[in-house]
Amino acid sequence: MRKFNKSQRRTIxxxxxxxxxxxxxxxxxxxxxSIYSHKFTSSLLLSGIALGAYGITMALSQTPFGMLSxxxxxxxxxxxxxxxxxxxxxxCAFPDNIYGLITGRxxxxxxxxxxxGIALIHENVPENTRxxxxxxxxIGIGASFMLGVLIxxxxxxxxxxSYVFLIASILGIISAVPVSLVHEGSxxxxxxxxxxxxxxxxxxxxxxxxxxxxxxxxxxxLPFLATRYYKVSNFYEFLIPVVVxxxxxxxxxxxPADRDKTVRFSLISLIILLISxxxxxxxxxxxxxxxxxxLGVFAFYTGYIIxxxxxxTLITRLASRDSYGxxxxxxxxxxxxxxxxxxxxxxxxSVNINIKNIDYISITISLFIMxxxxxxxxxTGFREIYxxxx
Length: 390
What we know:
Largest sheet: none
Order of helices and strands: HHHHHHHHHHHHHH
Strand content: under 5%
Structural class: mainly alpha
CATH superfamily: MFS general substrate transporter like domains
């Protein structure tokens, strides 16, 4: 935080709190969602669609909402996203059937909180500190993420699955308070909204599709795999050490990444994710060992957290200042398209949860990550990229 002045620290803290509270609401339900959805359907396909449904509306809304934030202001767009998130969770709490659950999840995803929030921070900090600012955002999101995945299963065990969604709605309401305290400049883009995303930025955003496809697939299988060794209410026994250590590694790499190593750590994050896929989905089935399972979970979280810190900086280093919202919006659109397909693909493949299906998932995810590495090479040549912004 010494890299930032008082005003910058305040902006980072308040915006991170807003994003973090919303993130906690999302992650409260992820570890138990596959179990919850089975109350309304026996179809793994419909369960997968429900799990990833919020991703498709996020994918469709992030780019236009991000561009809109360039025009009408970041905070106004953030409020819109918070409102739909609250309504969606209320519907998910007591749906009549699986289609009601899917509808609620679709509503949860409308809006551009993260893209507008990151843009609001990036336009208020120096370019050479953005990885650090992203790491600070990551600390807040990581803490919310950790609390969400740890508390969600416990709450579900004691108060019921439906009430977890109600708590997520309350967190959404609270999240509007911090961002309301942020001072936002009045200088917005007076030019017509840009609908074109530069090719290199689009390709880098394309990588986020595969990362998030892996992330939501990971959570689709987590309840099934973890319950072989732990009760749902005891998921914290392996998640706490894994998430904390992975978070420390990710944050520790943020400052070196700002020193001309952003592309290098982007590559490292993809390689770690590539290693984690067969360990998490495949090896444990043959070794039947919870240590192997935990190693796979740890590798996933480490690669995922590093990618969350470094990839947004690649976007804003290449984008002009007056198009941060649009470009980050497209980046997050691709992320959440990955969320949707990350729920759909396992649902299509997994008629039953068995070794053969897990094998297919492991191969599919590994191929997607290898494509991401190729895309990163084509867009950067694994060399650092900069564009000085006005």
